[in-house]
């Protein structure tokens, strides 16, 4: 599967306060741009294979690893 993760630019951001769960309530205004990162996803037998910049520090890698851990899948 191939998808474009469209880039955005924040035009405004306001913190409205902290929620009971510890996260902040936000009010934001952003604009989508006509470019971004192209993601290629395909199943593999186990874990994550990542080809791109920054390796395990990359946010896409970290999100996939967190998903596998939460789902109880080997990674």
UniProtKB/TrEMBL annotation:
The keyword RNA-binding does not apply. Its EC number is 2.7.1.148. InterPro entries: Ribosomal_Su5_D2-typ_SF, Ribsml_uS5_D2-typ_fold_subgr. Keywords: ATP-binding, Kinase, Nucleotide-binding, Transferase. GO terms for molecular function: 4-(cytidine 5'-diphospho)-2-C-methyl-D-erythritol kinase activity; ATP binding. It is an enzyme of class 2 (transferase). The keyword Transferase applies. This is 4-(Cytidine 5'-diphospho)-2-C-methyl-D-erythritol kinase. It comes from Thermus scotoductus.
